[in-house]
Amino acid sequence: MSGAIFRDAWGIPHLRADGTRELARLQGLVTARDRGWQIEVERHRAQGTSASFLGAGELSWDVLVRRARIADTARRCFARLEEADPETADWIRAYVTGVNEGLDGHDAPEFARAGVLPGRWEPWTPLAVWLSAHLLFAGFPAKLWRDHAAARLGADAVGLFATDGPGTSGSNGWLVTGERTVTGQAVVAGDPHRFIEDPGVYQQIRLSCPEFDVVGLAVPGVPGIAHFGHTGTVAWAITNAMADYQDLYRERLRRTGAGIEALGPDGVWRRAARHTETVEVAGEDPVEVEVVETGRGPVVIGGPEGLDGRVPEPGQPPLAVTLRYPPRVTGDLGFGALLPLLRARRVADVDHAADLWAEPVNVVLAADTEGGALHRVAGRVPVRSDANRVRLVPAWEPGHEWRGWHEPPRAGLDDGVAVMANQRGPAAPLGVEFAPPHRARRIAALLARQHRWSAAGMATIHTDTHLASAAPLLDHLAALDAPGLTGPASALRARLLAWDRHMDAGSADAAAFAALRSAVVRRLAAEPALAAAASPPPYPDVFRPWLALVPRIGFALEHLLAAKDLFGIDRPAVVRAALEEVAAAPPAGPWGDTHRLAPWRALPPEDPREEPGLSGDHDCVLCTSAVPGITDLAARGPAARYVWDLARREDSRWVVPHGASGRPGSPHHRDQQPLWLAGDLAPVVTDWAQLTKETDV
User: Fold this and answer.
1) Which GO terms of the molecular function aspect are on file (predicted)?
2) What is the pLDDT of residue 311?
3) Which region among 19-33, 246-260, 300-314, 526-540 has the lowest average model confidence (pLDDT)?
């Protein structure tokens, strides 16, 4: 026997093999069997071929990944692994072998519905899937927004609108050392916030061989356990560091008889690489894409003739924008860290693996059974001018080149606790915009309420719904001239000022606050002072979430309401009018009636059903993100929850939004959703005698 697949009561795969290579093949095999449709969609998205069967809605994405050269970068990174780390390259090949075995003859119903057959994975495909999943993770399109806002509203707008928004991914994470636990051993807990997908973006799995035995959350289509894992003696987790490591350059391009040239910072025109690719679109004519790359990077917007429909600013050349990102520059994606993580026995091993990390840039929390603790940034951030970090910079001017790499910062603990929730922390020198501090402060305050914690108690922190960011709007309500309000508005004002500020699904007051907030957002967006920013530049559709004014106001509302001045807008009048509007037509039910889960699916479900109502909100620890002014639906939220107990790994807990299986109709497709909704967690099973063997492989 070289390997075997076991399952626990939740259908979670536990894999056991004789060696690391065979285990990788087994992981690829079970991932393809459980998540075949999901990982094939991701392969197509990484290659820019998803529109060929999902339709024109995916065209803008496919064009971006073609122009950004995601697949070619993945090939480069794998080629470098073959030279510098052949063991890891061989391990990835084994995983891909398993994926292809599992996809052979796959009968997931989605393939038939989409009219497509499973394809073949190449050794570099997992790297392309990783790159594709994180291309927009650091939010480089925010630089397009800052450019637009500064040009239309003035330089002060950049700071006023600075906040994390609907396009970024975040997480909660906290570490409690043994001095603060009932067992005397550390606990690491948290929840990654991503767009909720069905099937889910994280796969619960166990990987066991003579060299290691690890439970954790894997990314389907990628070998190993990169982000959240427990080896028995050491556990680790990550949050988004909110670092800025991708640059956008304005380019001056010209066509010549030989091709395309780009003007460099030394005043010399140099030949740019150029070729064309064809993107197939289901039901429509194919689209030809010109792929151009200068010395800065691939052109992702515009070209020598500019952008269709955009008139260049006076004195500006036609718009062309290049993207510079570390793996394209270095040929290193950081996959050399994956095997060392699986082999880790103590914090020092995780620390060493983190030194090999590249992208995305994360804050790592880790603890081991010897009392070790780790709180550091991992990833590659270039050293360059401050202007690069904020907006588009001119490629033809000197001073915007990359000059090496930042040393990843480290941080300590405070009274045996470390908390990261995308706020300004150890990564502050590496970023521009961070999450408001509300989640981090709330987690720290909750942990301070008792001196010793157990793993079982951590679920109460995961599900906290206090909304600190409500304060500026409620302050405006409190300052209103109450006698001037109508009776219904006065009553609504009194209700909201007495509200406990918890965004619970069953709370009518939370629903009323959300309705008022949205009304304020829409009214601010309609103010003439902001009209100049209301029409986004005609960039590709894939960038629109970062450029729409209403969501930008919604996610920056507390800053806009608390600022000394907001372009002369009479904010008390706006709040008063919004209060009267909501009082005249209040929400009919509680928050959970409209704040419902809205998961992304590549294909609409054959059995559509009403998705469940949710507690929480964007700035709650229970981060289920509505988009104020647009929708109460939550497309983003906790993509998993975990509690790693270093005293006894079997006392650890975890849960995902749906289930372990990606196959509709499977008993494990949605069986964890009741736990996820209730804030409960499933046990992590480690006793092989409690598992059911599915097959020898």
Assistant:
1) hydrolase activity
2) 60
3) 300-314
Q: Is 210 exposed, middle or buried (0-12, 13-18, 19+ CB in 10 A)?
A: exposed
Residue-wise pLDDT for 514-554, tens only, equals 999 999 999 999 999 999 999 988 899 999 999 999 999 99
Which one-letter DSSP state was computed for residue 505? T
| Residues 553 and 531 sit within 8 Å (Cβ to Cβ) | no
Per-residue HEC secondary structure of 128-159 comes to: HHHHHHHCCCCCCCHHHHHHHHHHHHCCHHHH
The DSSP secondary-structure symbol of 405 reads B
CA dihedral 24, 28, 33, 34 (to 10 degrees): 90
CA dist 654 → 593, 683, 691 (Å): 27, 7, 17
DSSP state of 337: G
Number of residues in the chain: 697
Nearest CA to 167 out of 479, 542, 474 is that of 542
DSSP-H helix ranges across 189-292: none
Query: Which is it for the CA torsion 453, 454, 457, 459, positive or negative?
Result: positive
The reported pTM is 0.96
CA atoms within 13 A on the CB side of 585: 5
Tokens of 403: 């000059």
Alpha-carbon separation of residue 597 from 197, 439, 640, 676 (angstroms): 10, 21, 14, 12
Q: How far apart are CA 307 and CA 149, in angstroms?
A: 19
Tokens 């609504």 correspond to 492
Q: Give the end-to-end CA distance of the chain in Å, rounded to a whole number.
A: 7
H/E stretch holding 677: helix 673-678
For residues 364 and 202, give the distance between their C-alpha atoms in angstroms, rounded to a whole number.
18
Each residue of 368-379: pLDDT tens digit?
A: 999 999 999 999
Residue 168: its pLDDT value, please? 60
CB of 430 closer than 8 Å to CB of 241: yes
The verdict on whether 132 is a catalytic residue reads no
Tokens linked to 222: 């990628």
Q: Are 444 and 419 in contact (CB under 8 A)?
A: yes
Whole-number percent of the chain with pLDDT over 70: 98
Q: Find the catalytic residue in 50, 132, 169, 171.
A: 171
Phi, psi of 521 (to 5 degrees): -60, -50
Other beta carbons within 10 Å of 259? 12
Q: How far is CA 570 from CA 384, 520, 528, 629, in A?
A: 40, 12, 12, 19
Could you tell me whether strands 203-209 and 13-17 are parallel, antiparallel, or unpaired per DSSP bridges? parallel
> What is the secondary structure of 276-293 as a DSSP string?
EEEE--TTS--EEEEEEE
Contact 373/173 with Cβ under 8 angstroms? Answer: no
Residue listed under structure tokens 């991932």? 31
Residue 224 contacts residue 20 (beta carbons within 8 Å)? no
Which residue is listed with tokens 């051993």? 185
Helices (H), 308-419: 326-330, 338-342, 347-355, 386-390
DSSP β-ladder status, 269-279 and 287-293: antiparallel
